[in-house]
Specification:
Number of domains: 3
Distance between the termini: 29 Å
CATH class of the largest domain: Mainly Beta
CATH superfamily of the largest domain: Immunoglobulins
Largest sheet: 6 strands, antiparallel
Number of helices: 5
Strand content: 35-45%
Order of helices and strands: EEEEEEEHEHHEEHEEEEEEEEHEEEEEEE
Oligomer: single chain
CATH topology of the largest domain: Immunoglobulin-like
Length: about 400
């Protein structure tokens, strides 16, 4: 993001005043503290019926109060304010305020000679000051916010990046009203991203995500399997992303389903308690600190053993495996230990974006145990050179000697 002064720090909504009109519904008046920056040019008021997921905004100019009308009764409406300067730089949003608008008892509109309500035409008039928020990639973060934060409005996957490394991805920070570029500003909880992990061909049940509420699951990008009767089956390994909408069409969750060929170990992480997950066949251990991420998430170690023989020939001192969920970003690095015999060990992680293997620093290598740290899950490869004079592993019909798995290229 280019360097410029943000003018959001003093934005505080001072109050909300509700009035009701029979034709246009409820009107909410909000006001806020004025900013004192010399280059201040105006304010925008964002609002919607889902917290931190605003459907509209109004550019109110350089004023500190505005009436927002035509709001539905019987619903909670959410409001936040941003400021912008004379160069068009827009600040982050203020803290959020909300109001439940009660249902009012109002008389029916008078009926004219045609039998129509006299004010039916007025009911359909849209407020010209309302501007729907564009979201080109349908990732839940409006284009203007993505541009402000130097994200790509055409790339839905960057909503699950963690640009400030605080353990909360950009979508969560947007919906919770925190700054995705400030590691010191982190959501206390995360109830936006829902992770599931499974094997290829396994039926994934999504009913538990919405609880008693029926949700509609829509693939984030073309080519992903459709959800039928709240279930979905994937035929290939990889990460599959879905938006979950409630009955009113509001985005409430982002669902990421991570599919591996075969799962070797599974666990469940909860904030506040460290997780130790051990895979005994290949000798892989995973430790996650209790403050690594502010939500519950399933964790798995998996991979593909179908090409074990080829891997053993090409790189007899190498192990490839998956840490699930794919792309999970932690605020605190996880520690991984892998049993690999040999000298000069190397660790690599597969980059799904570039299609390259990227080096990761080896923290220690003693007694055939290689240890490294990572803040992002995915597919890893740990290898070592043969020690000089070491004998080749016996190959005369032996089916033991460990498992070697190939990477998942997504």
């Amino acid at each position: 993001m280019k360097s410029h002064k943000l003018v959001w720090a003093t934005l505080v909504i001072l109050g909300i005043l509700i009035s009701s009109q029979a034709v246009y519904g409820a009107t909410v008046r909000i006001s806020w503290n004025a900013n004192t920056e010399a280059d201040l040019d105006g304010y925008k008021v964002y609002y919607g019926i889902t917290s931190r997921s605003y459907l509209s905004y109004r550019d109110v100019g350089n004023t500190t109060s505005v009436d927002i009308g035509n709001l539905g009764e019987g619903q909670t409406h959410y409001f936040a304010v941003s400021a912008y300067d004379i160069n068009g730089n827009e600040s982050a949003l203020s803290q959020e305020c909300s109001v439940l608008i009660p249902v009012q008892d109002v008389p029916q509109d008078p009926v004219d000679d045609t039998g129509k309500d006299a004010e039916d035409a007025d009911d359909d008039i849209a407020d010209p000051g309302i501007v729907p928020l564009a979201d080109s990639d349908m990732d839940g973060i409006p284009d203007n916010a993505e541009i402000l934060w130097s994200l790509n409005p055409e790339d839905p996957y960057d909503s699950l990046y963690d640009d400030d490394g605080d353990g909360a991805v950009n979508l969560v920070e947007y919906m919770e009203g925190t700054d995705p570029l400030d590691p010191e500003e982190r959501p206390v909880t995360d109830d936006v991203v829902k992770d599931l992990i499974a094997e290829v061909g396994e039926v994934v049940d999504l009913t538990a995500i919405g609880g008693s509420e029926a949700l509609t699951f829509v693939p984030l990008t073309a080519g992903m399997p459709e959800v039928i009767d709240q279930t979905v089956v994937m035929g290939d390994p990889g990460a599959y992303l879905y938006n979950a909408y409630d009955a009113d069409g509001n985005l409430v969750y982002r669902v990421r389903i991570s599919i591996t060929v075969q799962m070797y170990a599974m666990g469940s992480f909860g904030p506040g308690a460290p997780l130790n997950l051990n895979e005994l066949v290949m000798g892989i251990s995973l430790h996650i600190a209790g403050n690594a991420i502010p939500r519950e998430v399933p964790v798995g170690i998996g991979g593909d053993v179908s090409s074990a023989a080829a891997s053993a020939v090409d790189a007899p001192n190498a192990v490839e495996f998956d840490l699930l969920p794919y792309g999970l970003v932690l605020a605190q690095p996880a520690t991984v230990s892998v049993e690999v015999e040999g000298v000069n060990p190397t660790v690599e992680r597969y980059n799904d974006v570039t299609g390259d293997w990227e080096d990761i620093a080896v923290e220690s290598s003693e007694g055939g145990l290689v240890t490294f740290s990572t803040q992002q899950f995915g597919t890893f490869r740990v290898s070592a050179e043969k020690e000089e004079g070491a004998m080749q592993a016996a190959t005369s019909g032996s089916s033991g000697g460990g498992c070697f798995i190939s990477s998942v290229c997504r």
